[in-house]
Amino acid sequence: MTDELNRPGPSVIDGDGTRAWWALALLTVPCVVVVMDLTVLFLAMPSIVPDIGASASAALWITDVYGFLIAASLLTMGSLADRIGRRRALVIGASAFGVASAIAALAPDATVLILARALQGVAGAAVVPSAMALAFTLFSDEHRRARAMAVLMGSFAAGGALGPVLGGLLLVSFHWSAVFWLNVPLMALVVIAGPRLLPTVPGDPTARTDLVSVGLSITGILALVYGAKHGSLEGVDAIALTGLAVGAAGLTLFVLRQRRIAAPALDLTLFRAGGFGLGLTTNVVTSFVMFGVSMLLALYIQLGLGLTPLLAAVVTLPGMLALVATTTLVPRLVRTVPQHTLVGTGLLLVGAGLLALSAMPGMGGLWGVVVANVVISIGVAPTTVLVTQIVIGAAPAHAAGTASGAAQAANELGGALGIALLGALAAAVYRLGVPPGDGLPDTYAGLIGSPGARPAELLTMAHTAFVDGVSLALLAAAGVIAVMGVVVIVRLR
């Protein structure tokens, strides 16, 4: 392994040749895998839980700990990649991810599976910023670099789309462990081919890692994400408020410490660079809306329209395909349309799609969701491609890993908050529509899953309240994303 990591590689790859494109293709592999593992267990959990005897709490941690640790570790791992070298960080991260996947596949009980998923999250956090920073350095030509980032962002979208569908297909013929075994050969490919194809971007071995900053960032982000997710599932109780408070305190102390130490994990002077701070804000807001909306639409398709999880995943595929296809067109559009105009207009299109969907009676049924989802996906494509590129481009070359880690951490934080807050809004409207004493549970999902016949008028009341809640949350999301679109057009010039 040491020989592979130290293998001399090209310090610069000529974008006019084919080597850079092969290197980019290799970088898409770990990106697809890491994002795919965020969603691949959605359909596998009913098989996993009884097989390993997982409790309800353990099942929640099996699903969530992976995303928690990615969010908590991204900033630290991005900074580490800048110090030890991005290719080295990518290969080490891919190796650890493959090992963790094998442990997960062989897990005899819930505890081992949770620990393996946590290790996957930390390893994934090492892979993503390293891959993004390497892709950014593959091409010196601005247009080819834009195309490369579009391809990489498209791989993230492809991973999100493939997760549920691939999980469902594998479960038809194989044991649930197949969803983890699939990762092993793919990450092995990255470990073997990476030192041969990827450029050598030396790190700064003399720089020190401030362990206090690492602890504060991980504690802050992990507590904040946990509090937000707990609040979305269980309501805003003492646990949720404590998590949010601890997270806010940890991140505040992290920021204060970065101002005082000589070698900060996140150089706050990056925020003085044009586009860096606003780019991160755009990532937070866009992820807030897109993750929250995706969760709400998944609930509506399954609970409101009565489709199975696998069919629900298939229904979302047109939108995902539209996103992947549109990301490939963005580099061409940006040659004639300014970046801020393209991103801002796209966000306004997302807002228009959400507004139309929320205003349609019964949210337009199945076809209303499919069409609106395609429109929303097309609108978000410029942000998916360009904003992270703006953030990384605003940072000095030696801080590209830190910048990409910050961009992805912003995505994870925004997504967690979107699921929590938009989900809480929809749940609150549902509860208002089904007053206590009517014999209906606090959530529409509880009604669907509970036995016993109920009068038709009560079922109609619950369904109406559920759809009204989702519609109002979509309307709120439309307003948030539209405001962000206007701010981008005005400020991100």
3D architecture notes:
With 493 residues, the protein is mainly alpha-helical. Helix 4 packs parallel to helix 6. The protein has 18 helices and no strands. It folds into three domains: 20-196, MFS general substrate transporter like domains (Growth Hormone, Chain: A, Up-down Bundle), CATH 1.20.1250; 211-264; 267-443 and 455-493, Up-down Bundle (Growth Hormone, Chain: A), CATH 1.20.1250.20. The chain is globular and about 70 Å long.
CATH secondary-structure class of the largest domain: Mainly Alpha
* Radius of gyration computed on alpha carbons: 22 Å
Report the biggest beta sheet as strand number plus sense, adding barrel if it closes.
Answer: none
Mean pLDDT: 80
Order of helices and strands: HHHHHHHHHHHHHHHHHH
Number of discrete helical segments: 18
Q: Which fold name is given in CATH as the topology of the largest domain?
A: Growth Hormone, Chain: A
Per the principal axes of the C-alpha atoms, what is the gross shape? globular
CATH H-level superfamily of the largest domain: MFS general substrate transporter like domains
Question: How many discrete structural domains?
Answer: 3
Provide the structure class.
mainly alpha
Question: What percent strand?
Answer: under 5%
- Compute the number of strand runs: 0
Low-pLDDT stretches: 8-12
Intertermini distance: 45 Å
Helical content, roughly? Answer: over 70%
CATH architecture of the largest domain: Up-down Bundle
